[in-house]
From TrEMBL:
SUPFAM superfamilies: S-adenosyl-L-methionine-dependent methyltransferases (SSF53335). Pfam families: UPF0020. CDD domains: AdoMet_MTases. This is SAM-dependent methyltransferase. Keywords: Methyltransferase, Transferase. Residues 288-309 are annotated as: Disordered. It comes from Actinomadura livida. The lineage of its organism: Bacteria, Bacillati, Actinomycetota, Actinomycetes, Streptosporangiales.
Length: 386
């Protein structure tokens, strides 16, 4: 807003064949369209870097369709000065539109393109903390942090009020949160986050990480781990953290909450209230690194349910439970390994729980290779508004 417009491009139409009115309309159109170049983040992970431009293109298409009234057009991958960019054109973007676009997962910098020149657009990302909150943890089975952000973003876009991502405070649940990639991204955005994981080691590792990170970064907080009891027996452990983005905000009660439960996600309803989340976001087990553990599976090893190769079985059991925790109008986003589950099967599971799958083309551009055994895709669905 308030930025000087690029010089008008001359419409490549013959004045002879266009009426004055059409000419005027075309001129207005040309004047209002601005070309943008988005510099894609140089990713540390070579495999993800290869997919990043394609993924940000798909993400931009979803942002445009769901939150920007389809005003972003001509989304293309291109090279400028030997560096990969995604270019697009858009009608005058408002400050709020730029605030939204500032959070695109693989966006490093954004420019208005004026001929050969690139004019930087001042970004206003939601980020409250340093990026090490997302990057410092390294472990096998970690969901790439750019992809985690993308999944949270496109799930937010699938809800009934997509702009809430930047204007509201959607409450986020990752019901299979591992060591907390989604939770950390939600906190980065200033949102309340909740998670569950069946793996006690992941729960302990996340509790240790977040407490240390908050302490090392002098973030004002309180953290406690306690047993959760139902009818006198312990049904799980819960980590509860209250933190403030600054000392002043913390003192003024402007806080964020992180709640993580060590328990089976199929029991989510025992720990969280119905309709208490705006967004449910999860990277399902790939059937490779982490096994899916369907309810009632035969115990194996140290009393854990037997591992199944397909996450589909697990999702079929868990999605009805998760759907109850979603508020009407809220959205769920799931990523999964397409080698072990078909999109149609997961769409069917979501639909059987009364959720409306986002089926537009914009939502079909996310499939990408992770490694030899994993080709990842994502699917989102909305709980119909009440
Ligand atoms: C792909 S990993 C998620 C990784 C996570 N995003 C991260 O980066 O740490 C899938 C997770 O699902 C968890 N999981 C599998 N079955 C579960 C169940 N029934 N209840 C809760 N968590 C489960 C696994 O323990 C694993 O941490």
């Amino acid at each position: 807003m308030g930025r000087a417009r690029p010089p008008e491009r001359v419409p490549a139409v013959s004045a002879l064949v266009v009426t004055r009115a059409a000419e005027a309309a075309a001129a207005v159109n040309v004047q209002r369209m601005t070309a943008y170049g988005l510099l894609v983040s140089p990713s540390h992970n070579r495999v993800y870097a290869q997919a990043a431009a394609g993924l940000v293109k798909a993400e931009l298409a979803v942002f445009s369709e769901r939150a920007l009234g389809g005003r972003v057009r001509d989304i293309e991958e291109t090279e400028i000065g030997g560096v990969p960019y995604v270019t697009f054109s858009a009608d005058d973007l408002t400050e709020q539109d730029i605030r939204l676009l500032s959070n695109l997962s693989s966006l490093y910098a954004l420019f208005q393109m004026e001929g050969d020149l690139l004019r930087p657009v001042v970004l206003k990302p939601l980020d409250l903390f340093g990026s090490d909150l997302l990057t410092i943890q390294k472990y096998s089975g970690k969901t790439n942090e750019y992809f985690t952000k993308l999944l949270l973003n496109v799930t937010a876009m699938a809800a009934d009020s997509p702009m809430d991502l930047v204007t509201g405070r959607p409450r986020v649940l990752d019901p299979m949160c591992g060591r907390g990639t989604t939770l950390n991204q939600a906190v980065m955005y200033g949102l309340d986050a909740a998670g569950m994981d069946i793996d006690g080691k992941d729960f302990d590792a996340y509790a240790a990480f977040i407490k240390t990170w908050l302490k090392n970064n002098r973030v004002k907080h309180r953290a406690e781990v306690a047993n959760v009891r139902r009818e006198k027996s312990v049904v799980g452990r819960r980590l509860h953290v209250t933190l403030g983005a600054s000392k002043e905000r913390y003192k003024g009660g402007e806080t964020m909450e992180i709640t993580v439960v060590h328990a089976d996600s199929l029991e989510a309803g025992r720990f969280f209230r119905p309709a208490s989340f705006d967004l449910i976001v999860t990277d399902a087990p790939y059937g490779v690194q982490h096994g899916s553990r369907p309810k009632g599976g035969r115990p194996s090893g140290k009393g854990k349910p037997q591992l199944s190769r397909s996450p589909v079985e697990l999702l079929a059991a868990a999605v009805p439970e998760w759907a109850r925790l979603l508020r009407p109008g809220g959205a769920i986003g799931i990523s999964w390994n397409t080698f072990v589950g078909r999109r149609e099967d997961i769409a069917e599971i979501l639909a059987s729980s009364g959720l409306q799958v986002q089926g537009s083309d914009a939502y079909r551009g996310f499939r990408h290779r992770v490694d030899q055994a994993i080709s990842r895709d994502l699917i989102t669905a909305q709980k119909p508004p009440a």
